[in-house]
Structures are given as C-alpha cells and as structure tokens.
Amino acid sequence: MNRIIFVVTLLGLLPSFTVANDTLHQDAKRALRRACDYFDQAVSCEGGYLWQYSRDLKRREGEGDASVTQVWNKRPGTPFVGEALLNAYERTGDEHYLQLARRTAMALVRGQLVSGGWDYKIEFDPELRKKYAYRVEQPRPNSKLFNVTTLDDNTTQGVLRYLMRFDAVTKFKDTAIHDAVEYALTQLIAAQYPNGAWPQRYAELPDASQFPVKKAAYPESWSRTFPAVKYNSHYTFNDAAMLDVIDVLFIAARTYEQPKYRAAAEKCGDFIILAQMPEPQPAWAQQYDADMHPAWARKFEPPSVTGGESQKILEGLIQLYRQTGEKRFLAPIPSAVAYLKRSLIDDRRLARFYELKTNRPLYFTKQYELTYDDSDLPTHYGFKIDSKLDRIEKAYADVTAKPW
C-alpha cells in the first residue's frame, strides 16, 4: 500500500514545483497511474485490500494469513487504500481515480452486515459468503449467519469515515454508497445503550431494560481468576472504541447536517462522565458490566482502573469540549490527571492496570496468572504505558485559557 500513498503524497507537493520541474510533475502523475492501476487490477479482490502481500502475491495477510477472496477492513486495509485513491482524485481531478475509489467503496458496501457495520474482514467467495448476513444479499430474518458489527480497533468507524468522505466528494449522488452510510449510522445510534455507551461489538440491538443508567462504582468483590465469560455486551473503552465512534458521529453531523449524530456523540460524552470511578481512583476502566462495575474482558484484561485508556479518554474529553463548548466535559479532567500523576510507576510510565481501591499495579505472567510482579510479562501486550500526562495537562490549560 505504501507505493500508492507515497506517490499521492508526492502529488500533494506539485503546486509548489516550478515550471522547470514539469518533467518531475509528469513523471509523478505517470507513476501514480501505474501504481493505482496495478493495485486495483493485480492486487485487489473486488476493489478491496488486505494488509500486506508478498512480491509474487502468493502470500497474503490481514491480521494473519488470508485467502485470495478475502479483504480486510482494519488499518491499513481497504478503507485506508480508498482514502489514498480519493487523495489521488482530489490532487489530480482525474475521474479515473474516483472510479477506482468507488470500486473500493463498493467492496465495503458488499461487506456491510445486516447489523449495520462491518467485521474485520469481508469474504467474496460465493460459497463462503453464504455464512455471513451481508446486507446486500438480503439474508433470511432470524438466520444464524454471522452478523457481528465490530467497533474494535477502529473497524466499522474506519469504514464509515471513508464511505462518508466518498459520499461527500460525490455530492451524495451515489445511491448505493449513500444508503449504506445512512443505514450504518442509523443502526449505530440504535445500538447505543441508554447511558450513551457502546459495546465493543454487537449483532442485536440492546434491550434498554437490561442496561439501567448508573454511575461507575467498585464491586464488593471480583474474581482474581479469568471467568471465561462473554464480554460482548460490556461498555467498552478498550482500544479507543467509543472515542472513535464519537469522532465518526461528529464527522457525520458535519457531513449531513443532522443534529441527531451530534446528540449521540454528546450522549456518549455524558457516559464518559458517568464512567469516571469515584475516589480513590477517579479515572476509568477498560470495560464495565451493566452494573457499571469494572469487568473482565480477555484473560489478560482484569477488572481494574487503567492507565492506558484513561489517558485516551482525557484527550477525548478535551476534543468533546472543542467540538461542543460544553464545560461539563472538562470537569472530570483535574481529578483524573492528579490521580494518574500520583500513580506513575516511574518518571515516565503508568501501569496498564491498577488494582481496584488499593491502586497496586497489576500484571500477568506468561502463563496468564494475575500477579503484582512484573518480571515475567507476556510480550504481546503493553502492561506498562508511556505517560502523556504533560501533554494532556498542556492541552487542558490551553482550552481553559481561551474563552469559548
């Protein structure tokens, strides 16, 4: 993918070139055309893309090995190549790139699920597609086909950003793409919990009676052993899932001039306020159960207060204030920053997890046993996080110093 992105970046510099550089200008345009056509014709599957390919295209990978009939939706997959193609169109005005971008957009439309969003991957093999509830194929109601929208790792959100941008560039005239966006946004709002949160993924819309609006609280006790129960319905901050949804909804509000999208984003901001833990740890958990207690997710993600996601949430609250001017979104920041500063494990790092109430850093051994000892950590996950507190404090000072 870097070949396309590099040439598009080069084209972005073209207006600054002098007439003497016209040869370079033309060489860049030809290189861009060759790169984009090669990726579309030789590399893509139905206009969609994976993460990486061997030089001979025999080995293909998304987040793991992939087949020739699969494409990937997570960065740096399909929607992000589409963004590069749209950049090429906007830099050159050449309709050819818009057609390539549309082919990529339509690959995503063909991967949209009845639940409204997207899985990590899209399958184009005709037989294997029968296992998925792809909206374009109008599957039977109440079928047992795979129908799980994921908000994890910016998946559905990344697809929506691209499709909304394409929709705006084409002035909302491409019905297939516009309808897919509208359906996705409608379902996304319908999947929002009464308290404003979202889960990490969903297939069914929530039963509001099962999710009362409460403030975050400490449980009386919690299991030190991984319970291996489903956590799909938990209110999830992990990997910035909800913050990415907020971002998408503000983009949707601007793109379509629909206040309902802004209202849903602000409602999620209000959930962030509800989810701030009380003293002595006024920050946030990765995920919460319906009682608003920090909860287990994967076997290395215990009920705890998190140094990682809490920093992202603080940045998100500042962005919410910048988008809305509502001071309530700044109110949680001072106590959270003060807590995190006194929780630093050294001069520049926080623990990913802090034990509820005691605030002792929690770790795991390579055998996934919960421990206070950091000498035998698994290497696939960040159990210690770089502090961004100085940057967050500066951003907070900047926004509070300026009148809205």
Keywords, separated by commas or semicolons:
15 strands, 404 residues, single chain, four-stranded antiparallel sheet
Helix fraction bin: 40-55%
List the quaternary state of the chains.
single chain
The counted number of beta strands is 15
- The end-to-end span amounts to 41 Å
Strand content: 5-15%
Radius of gyration: 23 Å
* Secondary-structure class: alpha+beta
Give average pLDDT, whole number: 94
The H-and-E topology, N to C, reads as HHEEEEHHEEHHEEHHEEHHEEEEEH
Number of helices: 11
Low-pLDDT segments, ≥5 res:
none
Spatially, the strands of the biggest sheet line up as 10-12-13-14
Shape: globular
Tell me about the largest β-sheet: 4 strands, antiparallel
Tell me what the structure shows.
With 404 residues, this protein is of the alpha+beta class. It has helices spanning 2-12, 22-43, 78-92, 95-109, 155-169, 175-190, 241-256, 259-275, 307-324, 333-342, 389-401, and strands spanning 52-53, 60-62, 64-65, 70-72, 121-123, 149-150, 201-202, 235-236, 287-288, 305-306, 349-351, 353-354, 361-364, 370-371, 384-386. Helices cover 42% and strands 9% of the residues. The strands form 6 sheets. A 4-stranded antiparallel β-sheet has the order 10-12-13-14. A 3-stranded antiparallel β-sheet has the order 1-2-3, with no helix packed on it. Strand 1 and strand 2 form a beta hairpin. The chain is globular, with a radius of gyration of 23 Å.
